[in-house]
Amino acid sequence: MAPALSRFASSRTNTLPTLTPCFPTTKALQVKLHFLGANRQVTGSRYCLEIAGTTVMVDCGLFQERPYEDRNWDPCPIDPAQIDALLLTHVHIDHSGWIPRLVKEGFRGPIYATPPSVDMAAVMLEDSAKIHEEDAAFKAKRHRREGRQPRHSHEPLYTREDVSRTLPNLQSVDYNAPLKIGDAMSVTFHEAGHILGSAMLQIQAREGDRQRSLIFSGDIGQWDKPLIRDPTLFDSADYVIMESTYGDRDHREAGDVSDQLADVISSTVGRGGNVVIPTFAVERAQELIYYISELANQNRIPAIPVMLDSPMAVDITEIFQKHRNQFDEESWERIYRGDPPLRFPGLSLCRSVESSKGINKLNTPCVIMATSGMCTGGRIKHHLKHNIGDPKATILFVGHQGRGTLGQQIVSGKPDVRIHGREHRVRAAVRQIYGFSGHGDRGDLLRWISNIEQPRRVFLTHGDEDAALALAEHLQREHQLDVHVPHYGDTVVLD
Ligand SMILES: [Zn+2]
Ligand SMILES: [Zn+2]
Fold first, then answer.
1. How confident is the model at residue 28 (pLDDT cuts 50, 70, 90)?
2. How far is the CA of 94 from the centre of ligand 2 (A)?
């Protein structure tokens, strides 16, 4: 059969001839990739991939940075009803927090994620919906009082009801088990070493004798983190879509985390004060328990009560226990020698308000871990109120404190801070331990990408513009890679 190679456009116009695509027996394999978030900034991770008639979305995160939050209200640029499946790398809200909205807009396909991610997504999305509902109600009230016209309706972005319509679509996929989607695509989830259940996605597309492979890095963890396994290294891929959060920086020399924790806890208890630690509910809280349990079991700190005061962190800790088959070798060695990393005699998990209030009535020094991690809300504020004016106490920071947050004000040494509408003089000691980051630094990112032999192209996402461009320049110059840093809304055709 001699296929018609071209056809002239309408003779009524003077336009140049247009080519009609010609597909003899085997179609060319074309990959279309849409960048729908976390482009030259960090939050709102979302991609759409079209291969041979199948459309999948990779991650569906919420924009959480001030200047980009309005994008959460934009309709999905790809018709959600036309998306066949969603692949979730991990449950952080900047990767998962837009899913209920996608469902609200008509997405009905399966949401594939690793088993721990499926369990944690329920906790995270319900919490997120609750925040959206409360925010909407609060703004409605404020706008009414101020007689202002709001930019968006007073509807929440999504509700707990939308979440209950979303959760049944979640389906577990084990690590390293290829899953077929449509006729031409298969995806395999690999350990990302970022949080429990986090994955890198390896996608193989094949049609006739043509094939292409893509790797989505998700968030790349650090090597040798407690509890979870190391990030996966790959040898080959045609296209790599890679995060670049720390593309221009190495982590500060952290020192030994255990030694520093032992020192802070022992010296504070020696003075007769409490150690108050603002923490994130996912991973950071469990890492802290990992370190503190080891210190307690080795008698390197005094035997004192240790409280995890956050219903969400408690739920997540229980999900960690349930999925301990995903822990790394060191954690299993501890389990085998009777030193389980998430349990020890002094530990209390506080869910109820009563148990939370009970902590303030203890008349013995204790360690209090509570959310939120940047002190912007939650039970940590109550504990700060009770302890920040006490020179015997220590406020211990174990994570990055965003600009303008209460946490950042305290860590930067402000003499007075405002909590629940009242000024408090900071008399407690303020300490900080580095080394807890969930993200690999520049050295880790380079280690990961240099293992892949000459990909055709690398796309850098999930990093502030400076970080992404600095890493791009380095990869171009030193590794001779073809690197692109896409903008929000860009579409590329790869073949
Ligand atoms: Zn993450
Ligand atoms: Zn992320």
1. low
2. 6
List, in sequence order, the alpha helices (H) in 42-152. Answer: 93-96, 99-104, 115-146
Tens digit of pLDDT for each residue in 347-366? 999 999 999 999 999 989 99
Sequence letter at residue 376: T
More confident residue, 139 or 102: 102
Residue 372 CA, ligand 1 centroid: distance in Å: 16
Report in angstroms the alpha-carbon separations of 365 from 290, 291, 303, 347, 372: 20, 19, 10, 14, 22
- Cα(136) to centroid(ligand 1), Å: 26
| Residue 23: strand, helix, or coil | coil
Q: What whole-number distance in Å separates Cα of residue 433 and Cα of residue 427? A: 19
Cα-to-centroid distance, 120 and ligand 2 (Å): 15
Domains of the chain with bracketed CATH: 31-249+438-494 (3.60.15.10), 257-432 (3.40.50.10890)
pLDDT on residue 138:
87
Q: What is the pLDDT of residue 310?
A: 96
Q: Ligand 1 centre from 468 Cα, in Å?
A: 17
Ligand 1 centre to CA of 32 (Å) is 25
Gap between the Cα atoms of 68 and 80, Å rounded: 21
Q: What confidence tens digit (pLDDT) does each residue in 270-284 have?
A: 999 999 999 999 999
State whether residue 222 is helix, strand or coil: coil
The DSSP bridge pattern shows strands 210-216 and 199-207 to be antiparallel
Residue 9: pLDDT band with limits 50, 70, 90: very low
Rg of the chain's alpha carbons, rounded to an integer? 25
On the question of pLDDT at 124 being above 80, the answer is yes
CA 35 centroid distance within chain: 18
Report the pLDDT value the prediction gives residue 24, as an integer from 0 to 100. Answer: 40
Taking the centre of ligand 1 as the mean of its atom positions, its distance from the CA of residue 198, in whole angstroms, is: 8
| Pair of tokens at residue 358 | 């009970």
**HEC per residue, 354-413:** HHHHHHCCCCCCCEEEECCCCCCCCCHHHHHHHHCCCCCCEEEECCCCCCCCHHHHHHCC
How confident is the model over 191-216, as pLDDT tens digits? 999 999 999 999 999 988 889 999 99
Tell me the CA–centroid distance for residue 244 and ligand 1, in Å. 12
Residue 1's pLDDT band (cuts 50, 70, 90): very low
DSSP element (H, E) containing 268: helix 257-271
Q: And the tokens for 184?
A: 């031409």
Other beta carbons within 10 Å of 274: 27
Which pLDDT value is given to residue 142? 84
Q: Measured in angstroms, how far is the CA atom of residue 440 from the centroid of ligand 2?
A: 12
Distance between Cα 342 and ligand 1 center (Å): 21
